[in-house]
Design goal:
Blueprint (H helix, E strand, L loop, with lengths): L10 E8 L6 H8 L2 H9 L3 H22 L8 E3 L5 E3 L5 E7 L2 E7 L4 E7 L6 H8 L2 H8 L3 H21 L12 E3 L5 E4 L11 E5 L5 E7 L5 E6 L10
Helix pairs in contact: 1-3, 2-3
The chain binds coenzyme A and magnesium ion.
Coenzyme A (COA) binds next to strand 4 and helix 6.
Length: about 240
């Protein structure tokens, strides 16, 4: 059972969600999605993208509703300056990420919350991306790696960076090379633009979610504990 009261300071509840078609998906969506959400889902060209987006929006609303103890359709989302979705009038923060049919929803009492998941896939021009988007220190470390370490490290760093730019709310516009992670110290943030404070005021946790998938969560806090859950739409968490 989940509610805001079940969240602790320095804690993130991380929900793994499968973006498979749901039973009664369309009627469910009609009853709980906003017009704006419908519009955005229907704008997607590929049917599988539309289906995943629909599944995501429905499950996100059901999940947040259990924490907020309100009906899924009555949740109000706002977008801040750079497009980060936030909840209105509550101390609850969330961030989402999707890759193929897997999604993560991170929920916390801490603002400055970011999450990212990426399935490993062939990346053309990996060296070029490293050159453009890695920090100086990351590039130095990259040079010491063997070729068979490249793929894993690339995606681990990438998800940490994306989780950070999402935590700040700034998004890609911040420039990924402006934040840097320390590979030898379990991917802790060691460089970031001054306006986001000292790197040590952020806690990053890389997550092992399976083979050939990287994920990371970050909060602005001096430590971070992650509680993992799997969201099962047939048996959603109960409202307490
Ligand atoms: N900060 C934090 N989270 C954001 C966000 C922001 N500025 N903008 C969107 N998100 C959230 C949304 O919930 C989005 O999902 P939704 O569209 O289904 O609601 C989710 O992040 C997408 O995350 P992910 O699945 O990991 O997608 P991605 O790997 O393609 O990365 C962003 C997405 C957020 C990094 C990228 O789209 C971005 O930077 N957007 C902000 C606008 C911007 O700076 N554009 C410049 C482009 S150069
Ligand atoms: Mg992403």
């Amino acid at each position: 059972m989940q509610s805001i009261q079940s969240l602790r300071v320095n804690e993130v509840h991380l929900w793994q969600i499968e973006l498979k078609p749901l039973a009664e998906e369309t009627p469910l969506a009609r009853s709980i999605l906003s017009e704006d959400e419908w519009f955005k889902v229907n704008r997607l060209r590929r049917p599988e993208h539309r289906q995943r987006a629909l599944s995501m929006r429905i499950q996100l609303r059901i999940l947040l509703a259990t924490y907020l103890q309100q009906e899924p359709h009555s949740i109000d989302f706002i977008r801040d300056r750079y497009g980060k979705p936030q909840l209105k009038n509550t101390p609850l923060f969330f961030n989402i990420s999707h890759s193929q049919d897997a999604a993560l929803v991170a929920i916390s009492l801490h603002d400055g919350l970011g999450v990212d998941i990426e399935h490993w896939r062939p990346v053309e021009q990996m060296e070029g991306i490293v050159k453009r988007h890695f920090s100086m220190a990351e590039k130095e470390h990259w040079k010491t790696l063997t070729a068979d370490q490249h793929e894993a490290v690339f995606f681990h760093i990438w998800t940490c960076k994306e989780a950070f730019i999402k935590a700040t709310g700034r998004g890609l516009g911040m420039g990924l090379s402006r934040c840097g992670f320390n590979l030898s110290a379990a991917y802790q943030l060691e460089d970031c633009p001054a306006e986001y404070g000292e790197p040590a005021t952020w806690s990053c946790l890389p997550l092992a979610l399976g083979e050939r998938v990287s994920a990371a969560v970050i909060i602005k806090a001096d430590s971070c504990r992650v509680q993992m859950y799997r969201f099962e739409p047939k048996f959603p968490p109960k409202i307490v």
